[in-house]
Structures are given as C-alpha cells and as structure tokens.
Amino acid sequence: MVVDDHRLLAEALASALKLRGHRVLAAAAPAAGAADLVIARAPEVCLLGTAAPAEPGAFDPVTKVKRERPQVAVVVLGPVPSPRGIAAAFAAGASGYVRHDERIEGVERAIMKARAGEAAVAPQLLQGAFGELLNPSAQPDDEAQRLLGMLTPREVEVLVRVADGEDTRLIAAGMGIAPSTARTHVQRVLMKLGVGSRLEAAALAARTGLLDRAGPLNPGPA
C-alpha cells in the first residue's frame, strides 16, 4: 500500500510497483487519517510518505499503525533526513526510510527488506540514527543554526532571495551571476534543506528563524 499526501506521487509509485510484479492494495492521498487507511487494509508493507520528518508528530501514523497492526511493515518515504529524523522514524516503529528521490529499484529493495524483517535504510543513515537513539543530544538542536551550517554563504544569500520571492532571473541579476548558475545554487539549496520546492524552502527558513540569522543581503557587483 502506498500512502502519500501527493496523489500523483502515490499513484505513480503504485503503478511502477505493479509493473514490477507487486500487488498494490491501494494508492491513497489522505490529508489526514493515513494510519486508519493502513489499519483498515492491513497490507504486508506500507510506503508512508512524509514531507517534514523533523516536524513534531510526523511519525504518529507509524506509531498508530504498529500499535493496531504490528505485522504491517512501514517504510517511510521522505526528504533527505537528519539522523534525528531517521531515529524518530525507527523509534515510532518504522522498518525503514527511503528518500523521495530514490530510484524504483531502491524502493523495491526496501520493500523486500521490510518484508523480511530487516532494516530498510542505507547503512550510513542507519548508523547515524542508531547513534542518535543511543546517545541523544543533551540540548535541543538550534535548527536555524544547523541549517545555516549546511549552506555556503552564497547559498544562504540565494535562500534569502528565494524567501523574498525572487525568481531565477532576479537572483542572477542581484548576485551578478548567470541565470544557469543561479538555478544551480537554488537546486543545491533545496537538496541540502531536504525540500522539494522554493515555497517549501522559504517556509522552512521562516519557521526556523533562519532568515533572521542570515542578516541583510550583500549588494551584488556594480
């Protein structure tokens, strides 16, 4: 069963799995009630999408499914996670974590591992997750500072401009770079932040206070 708030993603992934010989009970796109759908259908494996693994309560559906249907293996589909996000997924009872941009072969491997009772996650991600579970940080992370540490000064400027609503042309003009270079910077920012769109990046920056930490923009070359 494939459950994701983005219907096109859920249906596309379900179709790809069917073509590879898997029986898909349902491809659903609920705004809420994901756990209830999975509990009602009781698949062997559920691919459960989340857009924000760091958000409080992101894995509550996993906890509910495992409480009501412990035999269902839940594999989370999400953006590039932090070790804490992976740890939270496993702590909730997930059998694995697969990135949204993973190839269908990788998703299929995760399904097979989950069905076999194995951890369906890349080894390096699993190592970081278990490290976080065994040795949790003494203090809560400063999310804004953590995100700033992932970005170069130029990428921070790009993010600020994206949050200000500038398109690629304006970003390029303001920074004195080619539009293709600006586009590359934007894509790197999205990848590092683990988001799928400029709107999501701007929302994340605003929510964490990153924009306040970034300071004013430097004027571009004359």
TrEMBL record:
Start and end residues of each Response regulatory domain: 1-115
InterPro entries membership: CheY-like_superfamily, Sig_transdc_resp-reg_C-effctor, Sig_transdc_resp-reg_receiver, Tscrpt_reg_LuxR_C
Pfam families, A to Z: GerE
Keyword Ion transport applies: no
Residue intervals of the HTH luxR-type domain: 144-209
Family matches, as CDD domains: LuxR_C_like (cd06170)
UniProt keyword list: DNA-binding, Transcription, Transcription regulation
A GO molecular-function descriptor: DNA binding
Keyword Transferase: no
Domain of life: Bacteria
GO biological process: phosphorelay signal transduction system; regulation of DNA-templated transcription
Protein name per Swiss-Prot or TrEMBL: Transcriptional regulator
Organism: Streptomyces yokosukanensis
